[in-house]
Design goal:
The structure holds 2 protein chains of 2 kinds. Chain A is mainly alpha-helical. Chain A is built from 13 helices and no strands. Chain A has a single domain, classed as Orthogonal Bundle (MetI-like fold). By secondary structure, chain B is of the alpha+beta class. About 2% of the residues of chain B have low confidence. Chain B is elongated, with a radius of gyration of 30 Å. The chains are: A mainly alpha, B alpha+beta.
């Protein structure tokens, strides 16, 4: 496969071609099997169609998906509110006493909201502040790097496809794998300390010092996710018609001006989507950090989802009510971001 | 010299854009180091034996001391370059070490024991791949079980997701029925609801069904992906309705239209969703971590996390297992990279 792409290869067309070769590769066996299975299902479904009529077949097609969706997404969403209003340590709702807003009061019971030590659930508030800090720097740093990378890859670069893939590759790695890779690099006798050693510096226990742990958690998560946002931004850049730049050149615009007055405004909608998606994801930070530092040292890298996980599942006493109350809070935050995206999306559509 | 002068002229002269090119490639190559270096380091490290892993500063390639099997000794003996007192250089094998003195023998004439000061000998090392890092855990740990569980979850979940999502998308894109808009809006509204927000109630549902500690509990809840329905619906909207009408006239049932006309035409979108589903499922961590508590049901990610917790010091095994875990997804990416990147760029899916 050639690594060098034509400038506008970010299009479904190349996808179609590969899908066709995929099909050939998977071979006729699969096709036959698929046909047999589907014909068998047809024997069952066709009488139903005669019974309910063509129009109502739509409901039948929707049924499996909506059944699973209702049971495992919609119903739990409603149930979550109920959980957050009940106490005790029992899992089944019928065994749980109704306690009103007690869980929320416990969560939000603080002498001073800026000082987690004054809160009843101090770990929750530490998690909130840690998450806010993480979100600010992770999203800020990542979107900036993604933008720079996308801008560079949008230039006439030899081997663009190769570079694009390399920057994207970490996105595919599982959080556990990413965490282990970096745990190995950051350990006492790891690669980074070896580099420090070359410069005559003392080795640092990166994951056991508060500030370093916070720093590396952010760096690792940027490393792991940057490529995804870079791709979206690159697609946004490539969708800007080249004609506009030519017109700008004719009007005597220099590089900076064409960036400022053509690229920036036209990339804005993509940029907003990227920002909100990155925000939504950063608020939910958990798995990588859980494997990398376990929330430590102390509570330095303890974030909201880990609080939910610990409170509901990991601690000895499983306080499902409190965990649900915390998830509802997290859900509200995510909802605000989602609405923000819809609002911004509509506004940029109208513009 | 000429090239250097040329380079300097580029900076000072009026050909500014050339400098931007150099900087671009500089950035890209640095990026390749940063993005791919950690993975490469992991792979190289995974082939080192424990002695080489403990070395600081670490060598880049997996060196190991050469050994020789000598008649009369059960274990292979380590080889050294030795400077004898008379200045002669010889290759000797070490039998044992007592304090500062090493007892060596010549592999060719193993009868005579030569006593050497340990500072007078130098290890003979060569690049050797410690493949036992890979083979040992396969025998001693449940790695193959984890692998099988992961494969089962990934394959079954992806097939289910493709079938039910495509059916739902077919209904939503090709039929007029009451409640269509409502269903669609509900699906879109939950696009941003991650499982971390509804952990407790989904766990309850799973427990009620009896899927606690069952792979089904991992597979089913995430099968009705809103993202998948949305992606497929958007694609199916572009398939002309006339094809369906023609098929109806020919007497095809609705289900036949679905699997013989719509599905083959939606193949590119299906392929994108399939790849994403494989990625999501293979890398999934938080939910399996909650549902699966019996180690024979662990998926690779959960198993790997348990590994690194238990085998804190046995990095040689952890590293090798990590490589094996990232290998399948890397292979998928290597063959389908263009397809994956263009899929993300066009749909903006969560990665």
């Amino acid at each position: 496969m050639s690594q060098i792409d034509a400038p506008h290869s970010v299009r479904p067309v190349s996808g179609q071609k590969q899908a066709r070769s995929l099909k050939n590769a998977s071979g006729a066996v699969f096709e036959r099997l698929f046909g047999v299975v589907m014909s068998a299902i047809e024997v069952v479904i066709n009488p139903i169609q005669r019974w309910i009529g063509i129009k109502r077949m739509a409901y039948l097609f929707l049924l499996p998906n909506m059944l699973i969706f209702s049971i495992f997404v919609l119903f739990p969403m409603a149930l979550n509110f109920y959980y957050s209003l009940t106490g005790g340590t029992q899992l089944f709702p019928q065994d749980r006493p109704y306690v009103g807003t007690d869980n929320f009061e416990t969560l939000f019971n603080c002498g001073n909201y800026l000082d987690p030590n004054s809160c009843v659930e101090d770990r929750f508030w530490r998690a909130v502040f840690n998450t806010a800090f993480f979100v600010t720097f992770q999203v800020g740093g990542m979107v900036l790097l993604a933008l720079i990378t996308a801008l560079i890859l949008n230039r006439e670069i030899v081997g663009r496809g190769f570079f694009r893939s390399v920057f994207f590759y970490p996105v595919l790695l599982s959080p556990v794998v990413v965490a282990l890779i970096w745990k190995w690099i950051l350990q006492r006798y790891g690669l980074i300390n070896a580099m420090l050693d070359q410069f005559g510096e003392q080795p640092v226990l990166f994951l056991l010092e508060r500030d370093w742990a916070t720093f590396w958690v952010i760096v690792v998560s940027i490393w792991a996710q940057m490529g995804f946002f870079m791709l979206i931004l690159l697609a946004g850049l490539q969708s800007i018609p080249a004609v506009l730049y030519e017109a700008g050149q004719i009007d005597g615009a220099n590089k900076w001006q064409s960036f400022r007055f053509i690229t920036m405004p036209l990339l804005m909608p993509t940029m907003l989507v990227v920002l909100v998606l990155a925000l939504i994801r950063a608020v939910q930070v958990f798995d990588q950090v859980y494997v990398l530092t376990g929330g430590g040292p102390g509570t330095a890298t303890y974030y909201m989802v880990q609080y939910i996980f610990d409170t509901g599942f990991s601690n000895q006493i499983q306080r499902f009510g409190l965990a649900s109350a915390a998830s509802v809070t997290l859900g509200v935050v995510l909802l605000v971001f989602t609405l923000l995206q819809l609002y911004l999306g509509r506004r940029s559509d109208a513009a | 010299m000429d090239t250097v002068r040329h380079f300097l002229n580029l900076r000072r002269g009026r050909r500014g854009p050339e400098l931007a090119d150099y900087l671009s490639y500089l950035y890209l190559f640095a990026g390749v180091m940063v993005m791919f270096g950690p993975v490469l380091w992991l792979v190289l490290s995974s082939f080192k034996d424990p002695a080489a892993l403990a070395e600081f500063p670490p060598s880049i390639l997996p060196y190991a001391q050469e050994t020789v099997t000598v008649a009369g000794y059960d274990d292979p003996l380590p080889l050294f370059d030795v400077t004898l007192e008379n200045g002669e250089q010889r290759q000797l094998a070490q039998v044992r070490r007592i304090g500062l003195e090493a007892q060596m023998i010549d592999p060719a004439s193993p009868e005579e024991i030569i006593r050497v000061h340990i500072n007078d000998r130098q290890e003979i090392r060569s690049v050797q791949l410690a493949t036992e890092n890979y083979t040992d855990p396969l025998e001693r740990f449940n790695f193959l079980t984890y692998l099988r569980n992961s494969v089962v979850v990934t394959v079954v979940a992806t097939v289910i997701t493709l079938v039910i999502n495509s059916m739902a998308a077919f209904a939503l894109s090709k039929y007029e029925f009451r409640g269509r808009t409502t269903v669609f809006v509900i699906i879109i509204a939950t696009l941003m609801i991650p499982i971390s927000v509804i952990l407790v109630p989904v766990f309850l549902v799973i427990t009620e069904i009896g899927w606690n500690n069952s792979l089904w509990g991992v597979i089913i809840p995430g099968a009705a992906t809103p993202t998948g329905v949305f992606l497929l619906r958007q694609y199916m909207l572009t398939i002309p309705d006339e094809l369906m009408d023609a098929a109806r006239i020919d007497g095809a049932s609705e289900f036949r239209i679905y699997w013989q006309i719509i599905l083959p035409l939606a193949r590119p979108a299906l392929a994108v969703l399939a790849i994403f589903s494989v990625m999501w499922r293979w890398n999934d961590f938080l939910w399996p971590l909650i549902v699966l508590t019996r180690s024979e049901l662990f998926t690779l990610q959960v198993g790997l996390n348990a590994f690194q917790g238990e085998l804190n010091v046995q990095w040689h095994y952890v590293l090798a297992m990590t490589v094996l875990t990232l290998l399948p997804i890397t292979l998928v990416f290597a063959f389908l990279q263009r397809f994956i990147t263009s899929g993300i760029a066009t749909t903006g899916l969560k990665g």
